[in-house]
Amino acid sequence: MTLRLHDSKTRTVSDFTPLKDGEVSLYVCGPTVQDGPHVGHIRTFLAFDVLVRWLRRSGYRVTYVRNVTDIDDKILARAAEEGEAWWKWSYTNERKFGEIMDQLGAVRPDYEPRATGHVTEMIDFMQRLIERGHAYADGEGSVYFDVSSLPEYGSLTNQSIENMVDDAEAASNLKQDPRDFALWKKAKAGEPETAKWSTPFGEGRPGWHLECSAMAKKYVGESFDIHGGGLDLRFPHHENEQAQSYGAGYGFAQRWMHSGMLTVDGMKMGKSLGNFITAEDVLAKHPAAAVRLAIVGSHYRTNVEFNDTTLAEAETVLSRLRGSLTRALDALEQAGAHEELCEPGEGALPDRFTEAMNDDLGVADALAVVHERHGQLNTLLAKPHIDAHEVASAVNELRDMLDVFGLDLLGAMWSDEPGAGGAEHDALDALIRAQLEERAEARKNKDWASADAIRDRFAAAGIRIEDSAGSSRWSLTN
């Protein structure tokens, strides 16, 4: 089945054909680093992380660009509140963001350009728009895009210019039209000298929309395959990006993809509503793999209700998967068949899994295949005498599929997760093994009361014991 993806502009799912055969260029609007990220921000970036993984698993060479907005009004305001230099505040939060994405196992972009490193490109872009009649300077240091000059303005979000609201963020009585938006903002009194750049039009700093158009052109070209971002960016940010790039004479994004929101009690998670949960807080309380599954386990275009129940369900799923995979590894070691295991990406994926992912990243149907194969693995492990080849095949397929979601539970990324190995797990394993040996001795001596008492203590402590021919294995219950 051909890969089919949704296009937010046409509101249809269609065959994906890249501009260059075998290559995909992807630009995703990255974080504005006025603070550390909340989980709603992470939703967007993990959604496109799965897209990148699937494109690469499908054989495409992907150029993945995700920018960092490190200068804007909010950053300047937050830095002033904290008594920090704005550039230091931005960099600190950028580092936090990167550490959290690493903790969640996200693929790093090929390029992660900062806005402040591309002011020269922005000035050139702005001058091109002025020369082509799509922008104007107000004479006091600001430059605006003339929305009436571009017939296509509004085509991304299917709005007519007559029905659009004024751009309050760029309010000025010097604008030709209240809906015109700022390409360049003049320096304000009291702002740091380090937060302004010189241009032919006066000192100031770039507008948010201009940053992305200029950086996209530099890293993925005048025309590129996919532009991604959160659904809340469609208007005005993405509409304005498209307008700028069309006005400059560029083809810009051939397809637009937008991720849904995280919600709390049905409301979009956001700082303005005060219902946000910082990514740092969530990761301090829950395993990163579970947070990742709770977010990527739903279709990227849907809104995801995020709460303790969602996280608990994800933890349960991962615990059961990890337990089965660990038992399978033990069984293969005992059978001397460990060499039949492969690294993710080396084998073929099940057809139904591939069909699901090729249907606009159909995660729900793809995960159904994962759970089905997981059940088959458990059936194989329950047999008195295992078929090592079948067990290895099931493990390889499960790892391949889970790796598409960034959740290869046997890989190095998740080896130190709680319950996945590491010092804590090893210490617990040693204690349990000692008890299992005592229980095995009691069973050997037909001291059923003692054997059952040990098993009951395990159950009360949340530890499941599974007996098979000649051995016993343990896992945590939920």
UniProtKB/TrEMBL annotation:
EC primary class: ligase
EC number of the protein: 6.1.1.16
Entry superkingdom: Bacteria
Cofactor note: Binds 1 zinc ion per subunit.
Domain Cysteinyl-tRNA synthetase class Ia DALR: 352-411
Motif 'HIGH' region in this chain: 31-41
Catalytic activity: tRNA(Cys) + L-cysteine + ATP = L-cysteinyl-tRNA(Cys) + AMP + diphosphate
Binding site for Zn(2+): C29, C212, H237, E241
Localisation per UniProt entry: Cytoplasm
Primary localization: cytoplasm
Cofactor(s) listed: Zn(2+)
Record flagged with keyword Endoplasmic reticulum: no
Xref: SUPFAM superfamilies: Anticodon-binding domain of a subclass of class I aminoacyl-tRNA synthetases (SSF47323), Nucleotidylyl transferase (SSF52374)
A GO MF label: zinc ion binding
Pfam family, one: CysS_C
Transmembrane segments: none
Residue numbers covered by motif 'KMSKS' region: 268-272
GO CC annotations on file: cytosol
GO biological process, one term: cysteinyl-tRNA aminoacylation
Residues that hold ATP according to the record: K271
Keywords on record: Aminoacyl-tRNA synthetase, ATP-binding, Cytoplasm, Ligase, Metal-binding, Nucleotide-binding, Protein biosynthesis, Zinc
SMART domains in the cross-refs: DALR_2
Subunit structure: Monomer.
Cross-referenced NCBIfam families: cysS (TIGR00435)
Family, as annotated: Belongs to the class-I aminoacyl-tRNA synthetase family.
Record's protein name: Cysteine--tRNA ligase
